Amino acid sequence: MSLNTLVPQYDPFARMYNEYWGPRYCEDNIVILEKILLQHIPEKSHILDLCCGTGQLVQELILNGFEVTGIDASEGMLNYARQNAPSGQFILSDARSFDMPACFDAVVSTSASLNHIMNLEELTSVFLNIYQALKAKGIFVLEINLEEALKSLNFDKEGDVLDDYAWASISIYDTASKMGEIKMTLFAEQQGTWYRFDESWPLKGYSKSDIESGLKKVGFVDIQALGIESSPEVSNPSSSTFFAAYKQE
Q1: Rounded average pLDDT per 10-residue block, the chain, 249 residues
Q2: Predicted model pTM
Q3: Which residues of 133-144 are buried (b: 16+ CB within 10 A; e: fewer)?
Q4: For 23, phi and psi rounded to 5 degrees?
Q5: How big is the CA angle at 239 (ends 234 and 245), to the nearest 5 degrees?
Q6: Where are the domains of the chain?
Q7: Which of 18, 77, 182, 224 has the fewest CB atoms within 10 Å, i.e. is most exposed?
Q8: CATH placement of domain 12-147+205-246
């Protein structure tokens, strides 16, 4: 059943993300970004958070003295983002098709959001959109789960039960096809009635060379990869990889 078939204007996944994944991802990502990005760009730089979700990271970046715009394809997510980061600017758009002028000093895409782009051609088109949105010498920071990381997440399960809400998710990954999905079931009580919602989100595994070739193809230079699995400052370490790449002058 689609998320909004029974209860229009209600997005239970956005609520779950806002209460669970959004704060957790933000807590760890801001630590990494402070190291590899924020200390290297001027105060009040304009940052684009691509696939910004429910806006926790946008707010942290604003608190660090930056001007921030968030883009996400989910209006439900953006509704929470506007509450979490009231001074941020938010745009409803798809990463594969957004078109913005070269006005950003930096672009970030974290939480492995671009693992939902299912082929390298489309991922490269996302990189091109990002490249065009950056000023000369601008920096792009990407967090993504490479193939080996997705293998380790196979059959990873999460969930919780509250008085008016319950959810469970499982991640599945096939090494042969390099594809997988996150399956989620949610139960939510609305006006005395419980509703069930089932959703799934596809995943695609990429190699380090895939990412580097896509970035190079659109013009990025000085591409670096950084694994964070051994970073002691990260409370929930993962095997995700951060890439940093620069737009040419």
Answers
A1: 38 93 96 95 97 98 98 96 98 97 98 97 99 98 95 90 95 95 94 93 96 99 79 53 95
A2: 0.91
A3: bbeeebbbbbbb
A4: -60, -40
A5: 85
A6: 12-147+205-246, 150-203
A7: 224
A8: 3.40.50.150
